Amino acid sequence: MVMQVAMERALNAETRTKGLGSKCRNEREKAAWADCLKLYESTILQLNHTLTGKCSDFDAQTWLSTALTNLDTCRAGFVELGVSEFVWPLMNNNVSKLISNSLSVNNGSTEKQTYRDGFPTWVKPGDRKLLQSSCVTPNLVVAQDGSRNHRTIKAALDAAAKRSGSGRFVIHVKSGIYRENIEIGNKMKNIMLVGDGLRNTIITGSRSVGGGSTTFNSATVAVIGEGFIAQGITFRNTAGPENHQAVALRSGSDLSVFYRCGFEGYQDTLYVHSQRQFYKECHIYGTVDFIFGNAAVVLQNCMIYARRPMSKQKIVVTAQGRTDPNQNTGISIHNSRVMASADLKPVLSSFKTYLGRPWKQYSRTVYIQTYLDTLVDPAGWLEWDGNFALNTLYYGEYKNSGPGSSTTGRVKWRGYRVITSATEASRFNVANFIAGRSWLPATKVPFTSGL
To answer: Do you know which SUPFAM superfamilies this protein is assigned to (predicted)?
Structure first.
């Protein structure tokens, strides 16, 4: 009943939002408004999925968590562009509160998940073969010299959108630097982009908040369509640290996988916006909050590189955005390495580096069996704004190693803990945290299910 009312309110809000487009007085208002249209469309889709009843408790909790995240992102866009007095008051009709109530009611069981061949089991067998094969037969090939089907990735995606059915569709993107901004929308399910390696196939853009975009819309590549897979590609944003938030990749794709990919930027490089996501053997570069968002995400066997920031800036690896205690979201970094990039090493003593800070009230991040190099400050974690969220966050460390892993000098917040129990730590492995049993085996990406 609560969810049905939430759906009705969301539909009403979407209709009202569409009508506000003509009232936008400048480009910033228009940018925030355009984001909200997409986010309301996604919210309605998530609520509709949940209302069908053909889903597990874990699915429902994921989709409701995403719906709530969407509305928070909509509101944030108006705030960061300085136009919060414009549209948001007209759109806020308690949809968030109703979804939060639904999350509380639905907060039931989550299935114990397993791994197979190094990937969560929700990756289907066919997809697992694709990821483990050195020779994938693509549906389309992109080459900048015009020798194959398309010269641009966008052209290939436009062609893919016209296909019949929604089975796995593979696009091989040959070596090159592709200067494109790409969006893979709700209707484009099961797209797979395969590059020639993260050093050879690069997609690059330069949108930023400093340049007038919202954080949400600054992404060089944005993915929403379910079941997206990327392999052997680097996603880059070249806006630079002086332009503040500038996203290389944003994923709101449920059951999405990134295998041997690169993510290069400065502030807000990798936006793990929402849904269930898995990153394996990836390289991630940034300065401030460079892995952030409110997905349920596991990063496994990844190399995380802190870059040189602007003068007097602090380096922060994560900024997790959980706004409700019943959201099944968080960032889990497992068996990875946190290191200084080449440009930071010579000036390492000039900058402090932290594992994370609480972007939202119930921020949740764990580092499990990860190597933390000398750059990590003894305190480990950083406040967002005074005492905000220090009692309600969940930050944990379990059996990490390296010179920056000592927990002796760590923060004394109520929400921080040194995890000593394997049982508690296992809540955040691929098997349990992102419901691995149901989807990862299909992708053929290798994963470790336990600790």
So the answer is: Pectin lyase-like, Plant invertase/pectin methylesterase inhibitor
